Amino acid sequence: MRSFGRQCRGQAKIFVKLVRHTETRLLEVGSAIAHLAQEAQQTLDQAPHLSASTQERLGSELSIATQRHHRISKQSRRLTQGRRLSHCKIVNAYDPTIAPILKGKSNCPAQFGRKPGILSEPTAGFIFAAHAPLGNPSDASYVLPLLDNVQNAIERLRGPKRPSIQSLAGDLGVNDPTLRQALHARGILTVGIPETPWPINPKPSPEEILAALNEAGLNRKRTPHQVQLACACGYSRPVVESHIACLLSRGAGQIRYKGPQGAVVQLGMTVMAHNGAALIRVRQQRLSKRAQKFRRLLGLRGRNINQINDPKN
Amino acid sequence: MRLIRHLQHWLGGSGPGLRVADVVPKTNSIRQWSDTFPWAEMVEAIEKSVARRFPKRCARGRRPVPTRVLLALELLKHEVGASDEAICERLRTDVAVMYACGLETVQLDSPQDHFVLPETLAQFRSRLDEALIDELLAIQAAAAMDEGLVSPAHLIVDTFPAEQGSQRVTDATTLYKAQKKSSSSSRTSPSKASRKRRR
Questions:
Q1: Domain span including residue B137
Q2: CA B103, CA A121: separation in Å to the nearest integer?
């Protein structure tokens, strides 16, 4: 038995084992609740024999039941310090407003961290742009500032033929309809951003490709080959985790410089150092088979290091 | 006190010069890493930005430590995972670090003291802002695209958590502070003694 709760609200004695056992059962029972609630709502809407007041009452009860499970499942998925909580996910069954957080002290990390965002290319892991905003905004809000930075880099190129951003892949966090519209307006395909938790189809059929192009309104701007590459890129989106791991190994996981400016400087320097290492790998062709294939499809051929180009005389 | 004015006694010298590029092999990892950066453009961008935001009031004083050296040290720090003190220490002895910092020749009879202090790196960092960092990243990306090494055609976006770390006091920090304290006390003690003698 343990005491939980805030001092101001009064502490309560909790049987911890009972709470953990209840939580597991509740999650099991409620795993199908989202699907069932959706069906119940549809049935309720198509029930003409019920009066309006009854429909309203039943609808509100249904939404309350759904929210209760949502709250429990949300707590169970909560991460602290990047790790899933191993136990005691429901901190207090009688006070759902108390949620597990990671508390820090003046000499101890993690109370106030940051959430940097990166925009990388999927072959060698070169990071084109990085952004460390204040607070913890939604993932979708990172995308346009990052794309603006990439556009600035493209505009610095001197040659007449400048490359363009063809597609963007991301996780469910960037699945935002407004963002999709903004990306389509810029001529960027969004087939790499999933709408469901299931993986993206890496080999879409011609009909699916046509549908994706029509949906984005980019029929004349993007080709089916580009859609295929975008789907493959979206399917292999988890490769970005290895880029993040590289950054973390260079110390980006812990901000040691002071304040927001310090976080920006540290992240920027880490990303540039990482990019240097990525370019060495590209020059020496030390890339994975997947990356080599993707580079071939993009028309990025590496130099043949075995070939002697120096003149003999 | 402006530290930059006291740091450049190592760059001069009269003895035989050692050509750094001849000593560091081409396969050295730091040399290869250093060769990927468009240093000239990056240094130009920093100098322009700093000159705009922190205009010089007078042209007097010793010339500052080159921006190229400070930028390379800051980047190397993240590449090799070193602290400010450690990377400044390596600059004195490691020829590959000298190559990365753009030093072409080194005088062999130089006193081998610090010519970049860790405080100078901190001062340099405080002059960098978000717009400048974005510009530096854009310059690096543009150079890589120009060379045909990378393409922005298909991109992936993601975020990751970074916790706020505390500046830990390491053995190196303690040693550095102790050495600095002892050297400053030894410098001041003869002058104090001479004053006493005069009295």
A1: 3-151+170-188
A2: 33
> Do A168 and B162 make contact, defined as CB atoms within 8 angstroms?
no
Considering only CB atoms, B155 lies closest to which of A104, A120, A250, namely: A120
Flag whether B162 is in a domain.
no
ipTM of the complex: 0.79
| B155-164 pLDDT, tens digit each | 999 998 887 7
B43 to chain A, closest Cα gap in Å: 14
**Mutate which: A243, A265, A274, vs B, most B CBs within 10 A:** A265
Global pTM value? 0.70
Contact state of B81 with A251 under an 8 Å Cβ cutoff = yes
Separation between Cα atoms, residue A26 and residue B114, nearest integer Å: 64
Q: Determine whether the interchain pair B163/A110 forms a contact, defined as Cβ–Cβ distance below 8 Å.
A: yes
Q: Name every chain A residue with its beta carbon within 8 A of the beta carbon of B146.
A: 157-159
pLDDT tens figures, A105-164: 444 444 457 889 999 999 889 999 999 987 778 889 999 999 999 999 999 998 788 899
3-state secondary structure of B107: strand
A5-11 contacts at long range (C-beta below 8 A, 24 or more positions apart): A5/A92, A5/A95, A5/A98, A6/A98, A9/A95
Contact A109 B164 (CB under 8 A): yes
Is B157 part of any domain?
Answer: no
Nearest beta carbon to residue B75 from set A82, A171, A272: A272
Domain total in chain B: 1
- Name chain B contacts of A127, Cβ cutoff 8 Å: 137
The answer to whether residue B158 is domain-embedded is no
Tell which residue, B140, B66, B136, B130, has the closest CA to residue B104: B66
Asked whether residue B141 is domain-assigned, the answer is yes
